[in-house]
Each structure stands twice: as structure tokens, then as C-alpha cells.
Specification:
This protein is an alpha+beta fold. The protein folds into 3 domains: 6-108, Homing Intron 3 (I-Ppo) Encoded Endonuclease, Chain A (Alpha-Beta Complex); 117-164, no CATH class; 168-221, no CATH class. Helix content is 32%, strand content 18%. It has helices at 6-19, 61-69, 99-104, 107-113, 144-155, 199-220, and strands spanning 20-22, 28-30, 47-50, 56-59, 77-81, 94-98, 128-130, 138-140, 184-188, 194-198. The strands form 5 sheets. A two-stranded antiparallel sheet has the order 1-2. The protein has a two-stranded antiparallel sheet with strand order 3-4. Helix 1 packs across helix 2. It starts with 5 loop residues before the first helix and ends with a helix. The mean pLDDT is 85. Bound molecules: zinc ion (3 copies).
């Protein structure tokens, strides 16, 4: 949004004066139309300004207040409330920050940072920086085990996450050999989990590999 034109300035000022209440804390609390608060977001004011029969410009009143008293809001910046009152329009309580900085200051950020396990109860790996188009680039924590489960469901249509049995808990390999201690080879999978392999199946694959190797050797001679 560009610096307010003079006719717009007068209108914005008029509406802010009419629709804010000054609290003892110094906050100018918006009393006009507001969005509904949801578990994931606070309530914000809504202020539409129209000059004559022109286009209606709708924004949050604290953004209007910032434009009026402070100046332009840099592209992709958000106006953060230093007082944590999302209905406050006092320019002294406002600061333009990047979306990432705004997120860092939020409670959601703190709560998510302290999580060590995914919603399904698997331990998280190292955070990775996720770059999504049109989104804030934030360190994301992907659960390697949930990723495995999603892939498994794709391979097995009609199954749900509840049907997934981790390799470590399977009693038989996919070819039906019993996973006894003697028939089990323990290794490390790429996601850091311990992985059990069926010795009998490994032997079958090894013999097949040797056969192919010998066959290709014969051709060369
Ligand atoms: Zn305030
Ligand atoms: Zn998970
Ligand atoms: Zn097997």
C-alpha cells in the first residue's frame, strides 16, 4: 500500500477517532467490526475506506493507523503489535516486521519449538528449512516416520495409518519367513531408525546377484 493520499488521510483519521477507545494501558482499542477469534488466530479489526463512489480499500485498522502515523508498510511486511493486543491501533505500539519475525514473536512459535515428538508420537529429526512458494520460509520439522507411513498407505490403497506395523514389530518378513533372532539382520535405516532385515531373503537376493554377475561374466569372455 502506498502512502495515504490527503483525502484518504482525513477519512482514516475520522474513522479511527470514531471507532477506538483509549485504555489505561495506552492501547487504542478498535471497537468497530472485527474478525472472529479462532483457536489458531486472534481477532483483528476490519476497516473499509471508500472515497466517494470509488473502490473500497479494506484493511485492519492497525495497518491504517500505521500508514497514517508512521508511513509505508514495506512489501511483504506485517504490522506487529508490541503490546500483544491485536485490536490496538496506537502507532507507538506498532512495528512493521517480516512475516518470519512476526512468527518468531508468536506463542505458536515457542510452543512448536519445544515439541520433541510429532502428533503421532514419533521423535522428530533435525529441523529443515522448508521453502514453499508464497509462504514464509520457516524451519519445519518433518517426521521421518510419518513420511514412511504416508508412502506405505500410497503403496497399499485402502489401508490407514492404524494398519501400519513398523518393521521392528513385524513377526514375519513380506515373503512370509519368520523373523526369529537367527533369521534377523539388524542395520540402520536412512531415517536413523534401526532396521531389521530377513536373513533368508537377503541370502536369496545375494544368490540372485551372484547368478547375474556370473551370467554377465560369461558374456564378456
Ligand atoms: Zn497497544
Ligand atoms: Zn510422526
Ligand atoms: Zn524373508
Amino acid at each position: 500500500m502506498n502512502t495515504l493520499a490527503n483525502d484518504l488521510r482525513a477519512l482514516v483519521q475520522q474513522r479511527l477517532i470514531a471507532k477506538t477507545r483509549i485504555e489505561p494501558s495506552g492501547c487504542w482499542v478498535w471497537t468497530g467490526v472485527r474478525t472472529r477469534a479462532r483457536p489458531t488466530s486472534h481477532e483483528y479489526g476490519v476497516l473499509g475506506i471508500r472515497i466517494g463512489v470509488g473502490k473500497m480499500h479494506t484493511s485492519a485498522p492497525h495497518r491504517w493507523s500505521y500508514l497514517l502515523f508512521v508511513g509505508d508498510i514495506p512489501h511483504k511486511y506485517q504490522v506487529d503489535h508490541l503490546c500483544k493486543n491485536t485490536l490496538c491501533c496506537n502507532p507507538a505500539h506498532l512495528e512493521a516486521v517480516t512475516a518470519l519475525e512476526n512468527l518468531r514473536r508468536s506463542r505458536v512459535w515457542e510452543v512448536n519449538r519445544s515439541k520433541t515428538h510429532c502428533p503421532a508420537g514419533h521423535p522428530y529429526g533435525k529441523p529443515v528449512l522448508r521453502t514453499a512458494k508464497g509462504r514464509v520460509n520457516v524451519p519445519a520439522r518433518d517426521c521421518p516416520r510419518c513420511g514412511l507411513v504416508r508412502k506405505w498407505i500410497k503403496r497399499n490403497p485402502g489401508k490407514t495409518a492404524a494398519d501400519y506395523v513398523p518393521r521392528a514389530e513385524r513377526t514375519h518378513c513380506k515373503h512370509g519367513h519368520e523373523m526369529t533372532d537367527a533369521n534377523t539382520i539388524i542395520g540402520m535405516a536412512s531415517d536413523g531408525y534401526l532396521k531389521r532385515s530377513c536373513r533368508e531373503c537377503v541370502n536369496v537376493r545375494a544368490r540372485e546377484y551372484q547368478r547375474l554377475l556370473r551370467a554377465s561374466g560369461k558374456k564378456k569372455r
